[in-house]
Amino acid sequence: MQPSNNQEGGDPPNPLYNLQPLGSVRAVVDNPSPNAAAAAAAPAPAEDPNAGHKIGKFKYGTSVSVSNKVDPIREDGISPSIRKSGFRAWVAEHPWLFTGLVVLGVLSILTVIIVPSVCATVGCKPKGNGDSQEPAASLRVIVRFTEAEATVKQLLPLLSKYFNSTKLASSALEVLQFDNPEMLKQVKKLLQDKYSAILDIMLDDFVMSTSPTIDSAAPPEEHWSPPGEPGSPDAPSPPGSSTNSSGPQGNRRLSVNTPYPYDDKKADPMEKTMWHLGAVSAAQAWAATRGVEDVVVAVMDTGIDVDHADLSESIWKNMGETPGNGIDDDGNGYVDDYSGYDFAGPCTIDWRKNIPPPQARPSPPPPRRLRSLQQEEDQTGLEAARLNQPPLRRSPPPVRVNPAATRSPPVPVDQTYTPGGRCGADSDPRPDTSDTGHGTHVAGLVAAVRGNGKGGSGLAPRVKLMALKVADPSGSFYASNIVAAYDYALRMGAHVVSNSFGPREPNFSPAEYEKTDDAKRYKLFERAVMPLAQKGVLLVAAAGNENSNLDRLRDVGMSYLPCTLELPNVVCVAASNNESRLWSEVVVSRTVGTNYGNVAVDIAAPGASIYSTLPRDNYGIKTGSSMATPLVSGAAALVLSVLGSKDGNYFQASRVKNILLESGDTRPGLGVASQRTLNAGRAVQSAMSVTGSGSLLLVPMTVNVSEASGVLTRVFSESYFRVTPTARDALAAAPVNSTAPSPALSVLGLMPFATGARSSAAPTLRGFKHVGDDVVVATRAQLLLPNRGMYGLNLITTAPLSRVAVTVGQRQVTSWNATSTRNTWLAVLQVDDAPAWYEFEILYSNAGNQSVEVRWSWPGQSSFSFLPEGWVFSGSMAPALPLAYMPRDLPTTANSPASEVPVGLGGWNVLWGAMPPPSATELEPGLTTVADVAGLRVFNPNFLASLSANQQYPFSVFLDELNFATNVTLAAALAGGAANPRLADAGAVAAAGSGPVFGIATTFIQSPSDAPLTVTFRITCAHCALYIDGVLFHETLDASYVPGSANPPATTTRVTPCITLDPVRTKDTANAAYRPRHRLQVRFAARTRVANASLVVQQATCAQNQAAPSTFSNVGDIAAPGPWYKAAGAPSTNASGSIQCDIWDSEVIGGFISSELGNIPRPEDKAPAARFRLPNSRAGSFPCYPPGSFCPSGLNFTTKISDIIPVAQLPDYLYIRCWAWWSRGFTSGLMGIHSADSLTLAVYLGGQQVYQSLSYGDMTPFSKQSRAPNATMLGNYRQLVAFEWHLVSPYTRLRVADGVVTMPPDGRALIVDGSFSAPR
After folding, report:
1. Which of these is catalytic: 63, 211, 434, 626?
2. Distance (Å, rounded) from C-alpha 1182 to C-alpha 1291?
3. 1062 is annotated as an active-site residue
4. Of 912, 918, 953, the residue nearest 936 (C-alpha)
5. Phi, psi of 1153 (to 5 degrees)
6. What does pTM read for this prediction?
7. Number of H-type helices and E-type strands within the chain
């Protein structure tokens, strides 16, 4: 039923409701066009404005009128479109067509009956609703590797000519663009097969842009009085005036350097209809600032009319680019990106066929207006006349040229392959002709100019708009374009990013595969947005308009991207109406409105009937969270204008977010987390008050480092980065006398090539691992500041200040004050939250290797010194997690033979090898004259960081302690002869004495009591590093060692700072079995032919603010149960042993991702569904003759689960772990596993994963290859061995062979002899 047009009292007619084309922008409502409004107002004929149009909801404001007229009905009641002849006549005339229709009908009935049954059994992907079609699949794939330097082009060089490759510098995401779907599949398969070990993300491109929307209602009757309007209070002086106030709460106003071209004390004619400006207290905000041009808001949307009279002055300009010359002048990888960029291009991308070159883009059509002509007559005569005449433009938009001539994707780009006819990105960010003005409307709400006598005003009229078009003409927002735009916004200096788009719709009843897909998409967005968070760029995202509670999505494991990203820089915004309630209304008997959520959504802002700019100098009304989002973005820009007024730092996302959420108008019961609506005036005043002192207000961390960390110590961590040649040259060219860090001093988007650790007891930074013009070292820690007040910060260095950047509590010191002491500089910090944790970082481009020192003063102490003990820490930022494949308890006399019971906890497992000298053909250029090439490799400062417990080592030995003071005892211990040299392995003896040795020694430690343990370690070595739970806490490096010298590094003894294990207990750990167990790892390299080669590790308890202990004990005194132990007796010689097998239901474990191993729990944490032991009398072997008979497997590790447990008692799909304590290792380090090519499985030995297969096609490095040590020297130790099968059926054969690579054809397998022991 169509809405009635019977309006009384001049009320506006009901709006038109339009169907939306494929993929559009978020939740927006359009006005009817002026022509439609005029037609509705015409006295005769009186025609319903909705006549001839379908009434339906549409997505994100893309409006397309669809004819709904039916054939005229004749007087006889029969439409002319219906033939006069009857049904039988038609059948007789079309017999074959009738037969085909009958067959089709029968098939349809069968489908209706069969498909639901099949879907109920195996699951079917649901189709979208009828409101929009599924977008055409894009032949793009988004990839990311864990190794920063890896690219698909490098890994698959022979196929690189078949695709374009674009790698985004900030997030390391790589977008692959294909022309052939088969080649896309082939590349994906090769990446999955060969490189899954380093494959972080591989995801098909997808559309983010469809969300149900409706047309808006008429604007509310109430108006506000803008400053500068007659009858309103005197307009405040604009920014840049000479009036200033000294008090932070007074009318202090900010100044700007560039004169504003308009008198923005005067209101624009349509401001009085912009009720949202009054609702957010814009006048109060403008009393302090209307924004500064240094603040840039990136609008990622359908494009912006950059020539609009109310927007052109606000458009950001890339001053490094000369527009229209076809050259990438600034070298950022984009040609002619003078006012932004169009990442989607001017034509719809369908990679399944060739696309002709785009046609010239005509001028956009005029917008539809909601008000009738009678209402417009109430406006000023000038406004009415202007709106009823064709829009005035200086000139029509320039004709778009072929993008092939100007397109240039982000660097680095492989442009080898660019098929003809492809329609891609270009430098024109204006909207397409099919656009309804969504992006232009959003842009006007942020920064439409004020005082030009036209239209209305944006909330932050003096800030700049970066136009980033990410939607194609169909309104589809492809993820590849979105992540590329994030990267661009970050690189080009945007401070706020406004996102008025989201997913197609919230999915509250997802299938498992949909949860898996959503997790991948969340990971993609997280990787793309994380660099923005790290830089301090605020991302404001719309909550969508499905009138749904987004908290329910969290409950079912789904997201609503980017709004529900759990990152500190993301603000999720709902829409409110003029009654300060969440917007909702009834349209065609259906309630529509903003999404909400007491957890997922942060704040609400006006979003109903919002007046703003439309293309071609037009204006109109739209409704939805898409309109609320730019208002929050504009308010954020105003707050940043204030916060950055002192130091020029406009990258303060977390701080701005806190201010916006805390300063809003309280609305009890409002369905958002803050229970507040936006108040820009109060937010600006709050920013003014906290910056009035001139100091840098520090922003505390959102987590308690003590609670979040399993390990806490007083050290600085170091990471070394290599910057680009452009950044290197910029750093070199920075003025020597500058008191501010160079803008080029940044490591954003870079991956460290080396790491380190240094004691915070002497925070003078010198003696760096790496020095160079292109090297930047990041020294980091977390500060626990106990007191509120003012802190002084002294920077003491002879290095140029342009090469040093100090950041405390998210505030970078951008200008240092000189002191009376030479080479000493001062900054003042303000702490309002205490006690609280604050991040600390020093970035130093150490080309000259000058030292850098930081000293502090704090409330109550005026002199400068190092921060007290207990104020500076580095935390692991993660708790200690148990090994999932290891049982919680060790064997006892109650469940195991006496010989298998532990005689003590602890012991070290040392995985090691020898570095042989390279052959002549292996010598790297320039190394032929080095005295000790092998030593050059292992004594390299980066070598220890490259070691991993999961790589293959030739030898494994178990030792009670690391206490070897000479090269003789060290070599003997590594060879297994520590207790008795005659028991040493001959091959290990030869290796230990042949050259420099290297390896990883691992043990597990825990607090011996139910309390935190503070411990220090004394380490004697030449070249070693200490890690706890994977975090580096200490290094011993000989700074005087000359790489490649015949003399190895000197052996020294050093004591670590105090390290606290489990600083905060979160559960009852009175029972030692429940206490966290920490992996202590010592990575080492030593020249065993040198007499003083030593490796000694000891421990002692310590206390803060006290001298280091003088007495140290064995590490075994604080040992924890680990995946090995020393047994009471020698290995058993019994013929038969035991292996325990536990089975879990796949539904209990959770979703399965073929490229990853599942998370099988410990039996103590989640009880198995079934259990059995091997050997088992019901276990059968294969092959078995005669076929169909039963052949017992005996002691062979081979069986089907269905042989032992009836299938009826088992779930359909299983996770299985078979484990035991083992007194030996795999023969020659080799093993074979049945059906490894088609099964997902893993094998663990001690603390190593020694085998992995991710089913079909898994060809990652060392996949389906044993990484077990070639020789294992256990003595009386037992090590855990665990075999895991993931998502297999009850009919799967479990079979493992020892000492072979290929499975024996006769069915032989690993013998479960007395060397295996599984407690009962």
Report:
1. 626
2. 13
3. no
4. 918
5. -115, 120
6. 0.58
7. 24, 60
